[in-house]
Write a structure and sequence with these properties.
The complex is a heterodimer.
Chain A: H1 2-35, H2 37-50, H3 64-71, H4 73-76, H5 90-101, H6 111-120, H7 125-136, H8 141-181, H9 186-195, H10 197-212, E1 218-221, E2 232-235, H11 243-252, H12 263-281, H13 284-301
Antiparallel strand pairs in A: 1-2
Helix pairs in contact in A: 1-8, 1-9, 1-10, 1-12, 1-13, 2-8, 5-6, 5-8, 7-8, 8-12, 10-11, 10-13
Chain B: H1 3-15, E1 23-28, H2 29-35, E2 40-49, E3 66-72, E4 79-83, H3 90-98, E5 104-117, E6 123-124, E7 139-149, E8 152-153, E9 174-175, H4 176-185, E10 187-192, E11 196-201, E12 209-215, E13 220-222, E14 225-233, E15 247-252, H5 256-261, E16 269-278, H6 280-290, E17 295-298, E18 301-308
Parallel strand pairs in B: 1-6, 4-7, 9-12, 15-18
Antiparallel strand pairs in B: 1-11, 2-3, 2-5, 3-4, 5-7, 7-8, 10-11, 10-17, 12-14, 12-16, 13-14, 14-15, 16-18
Classes of the chains: A mainly alpha, B alpha+beta.
Chain lengths: 323, 310
């Protein structure tokens, strides 16, 4: 009896963590779309490479080369209105930079053109860096271009690192906001589930329904069954929180009810919030897998009528063959 | 509620976490873009290790293949290449036996990324590949099946796997109801930098699988083969497919399966033998969509069709 209650409370907690993680993921994606953070960080990375380099026509502007770079037609063709691109191939970067440094010369650019352009530049970071690359490239333009690409790729690895850290930081911030706004206190939720068998039973039933849904993830589908070279990414139904699930969350979370202001209660509350934030950061797929395990454990231990799940099969009618 | 009970719940959750023995495969983005919709790849391959005779015919690893391990000029990863039905390719076998270490041989075949023997170390495309010490080193990349080996055409090896006995012993492949549910639940984490795509996965298995395909669309011709979306069934008269959605099938141009495919249209069924590989077209689109924001998905896979079965 004690064991089955522990499993049911665990299922309830995992279920809550899963729903909160799904909400957090949606909020993060929304935020990422709004802030266009990847494009911003790419621009920042390029600013670090080109930002301290005046040009001969704008000697007093340290960002002159950076601005000229973003005015180049190869770059503007990748922009949507005034929005900078989120990705930039190394070859495009090197081509644009060489073109600017060789003063947009028409026809085939030579090492001499590039050197002439570099010599005419006022002192700055780009002049110093590209000159060093050119010295090591034994006067071959292809080698210089490869060197510039390597310089760019090193910088982009840093951008990727920034982006990853920024994403992780945002996940923690969003998880904290959700936890505090909803008062998602693990200790409180566990206590409610332990003490209220009706709520516990409702949560376990809803958790079992959730376990039958697809794993929260993105899937790749082919909109045109005759074109297997054009897959597209879609979000599956496992990424949405149903009305019943929202209603159950409402019963376990929130700021309503008598509020204990004792020191012990606050200590418990802070511990509960911290556990919830940590749990949300583990992500929805993790909690979905764990929920399935617990539901299977419970099914194996309880009712012989409940059979283990067979692999999901989908029957497609002849007219419904498009993926 | 007693603190002890709460601790029991939290302990139960924490000890149930999953530990996956995965590795990271880092591929050059331009490589993925180039090969994602191709059936094969041509490379110069230095054969470093190979056995002297093909595997027996039976089940599981007794698949009649001959393995060779080495280093190449295109994939630039630990690599194993395999000739299927090697007993019926005496000229290629003789060429293989006559190769000397460090001799580069021109080779074409279906590229195959599959996390079956990944080992424990990450694999990064372009890093210096150590000379393998066995014919089956840790690897996730294969040329399998080989279609041309040192000028010897092997397109006719894409037939049912059997030996030369009378009557011949037929290879016993994994069945669709065993292999496909396994393929369907494999996971991968995909992440991209500006120049590379990282795939984190592991624990793949079930090389040769026998199944029925029903074309969900019409075949599309690519440089060196045909691609088609198909539903997968355990038997010819089954109505329940064994995959969650149609999967991409890869046919190598000039092989018997490819020739047979050209006579089929949407809705037709075919009994085939196939081997799984990572679907780089899906990996690429996921990487483009999510960039440096890693995404965990079911491992995108497709099937290389190596034989039409009776």
């Amino acid at each position: 009896m004690f064991g089955s209650t522990v499993v049911d409370v665990a299922i309830g907690l995992v279920f809550v963590y899963l729903l909160l993680a799904i909400i957090c993921t949606s909020a993060n994606e929304l935020l990422s779309g709004v802030t266009k953070s990847r494009a911003t960080l790419l621009t920042e990375g390029i600013r670090q490479l080109l930002g301290n380099q005046p040009t001969s026509s704008a000697k007093n502007s340290p960002e002159a080369l950076f601005e000229e770079f973003y005015r180049h037609s190869l770059i503007t063709s990748m922009m949507r209105g005034h929005r900078h691109p989120a990705y930039l191939p190394a070859r495009t970067f090197s081509t644009v930079l060489i073109d600017i440094l060789s003063k947009n010369r028409t026809g085939r650019v030579t090492v001499e053109d590039l050197e002439e352009g570099l010599n005419s530049l006022p002192d700055g970071d780009v002049k110093q860096s590209v000159s060093a690359i050119a010295r090591n490239a034994e006067r071959e333009l292809d080698d210089i271009q490869l060197g510039i690409e390597g310089w760019f790729e090193d910088a982009m690895d840093r951008v990727t690192g920034w982006y990853k850290r920024k994403t992780q930081v945002w996940t923690i911030i969003v998880a904290s906001l959700i936890t505090l706004l909803a008062n998602a206190d693990t200790v409180h939720i566990a206590r409610r589930l332990w003490q209220d068998p009706v709520l516990r039973s409702a949560v376990v039933e809803e958790a079992k329904t959730r376990a039958q849904k697809p794993r929260p993830s993105v899937t790749v589908e082919y909109p045109d069954p005759d074109d297997p070279t054009n897959p597209q990414v879609t979000s599956n139904e496992g990424n949405t929180v149903s009305a019943q699930e929202q209603a159950l969350l409402g019963q376990m979370l929130g700021w309503q009810g008598p509020f204990d202001n004792s020191k012990r209660a606050w200590m418990e509350r802070i511990l509960g919030w911290a556990l919830t934030i940590l749990a949300i950061c583990l992500g929805a797929p993790f909690w979905f897998d764990l929920l399935n395990k617990f539901v299977n454990i419970r099914s194996a231990g309880k009712s012989p009528a409940e059979k283990p799940k067979t692999p999901q099969k989908r029957k497609l009618a002849t007219a419904d063959k498009s993926p | 509620m007693k603190t002890r009970s709460l601790l029991a719940v939290l302990l139960l959750i924490s000890v149930s976490g999953v530990c996956r023995a995965d590795i990271t495969l880092a591929l050059n983005k331009s490589f993925v873009k180039k090969y994602k919709d191709r059936a094969t790849l041509t490379t110069n391959f230095q054969v470093d290790h190979h056995p002297t005779k093909p595997h027996d015919i039976g089940r599981s690893g007794d698949d009649g293949d001959i393995h060779m391990a080495g280093r190449d000029s295109v994939l630039k990863l630990p690599l194993v290449a395999e000739i299927i039905n090697a007993r019926f390719a005496p000229t290629a076998m003789q060429e293989l036996m006559e190769t000397v270490s460090d001799q580069a041989i021109s080779m074409t075949g279906a590229w195959r990324i599959w996390f079956e023997h990944p080992g424990h170390k990450d694999q990064i495309q372009g890093q210096t590949v150590k000379k393998p010490t066995t014919s089956n080193p840790d690897h996730v990349c294969e040329i399998h099946p080989i279609t041309k080996f040192s000028g010897v055409d092997l397109l006719t090896s894409f037939v049912e796997i059997k030996n030369q006995a009378v009557p011949p012993k037929i290879y016993e492949a994994y069945t669709a109801d065993v292999a496909f549910p396994f393929y369907e639940q494999l996971e991968a984490t995909i992440e991209a930098s500006n120049t590379a795509i990282m795939i984190v996965s592991g624990g793949s298995k079930y090389n040769y699988t026998e199944f029925y395909i029903e074309l969900a669309g019409n075949p599309k011709e690519v440089t060196d083969g045909y691609l088609v979306l198909a539903n997968v069934f355990q038997s010819d008269n089954d109505e329940d497919q064994v995959t969650a959605a149609p999967r991409r099938m890869v046919f190598v141009k000039g092989t018997e399966p490819a020739n047979k495919l050209l006579s089929l249209t949407q809705g037709d069924r075919l009994h085939v033998l196939g081997i799984p590989r990572v679907n780089l077209a899906e990996v690429y689109v996921l990487a483009q969509e999510h960039g440096a924001n890693e995404v965990t998905v079911n491992l995108p896979y497709e099937m290389i069709i190596v034989a039409v079965l009776p």
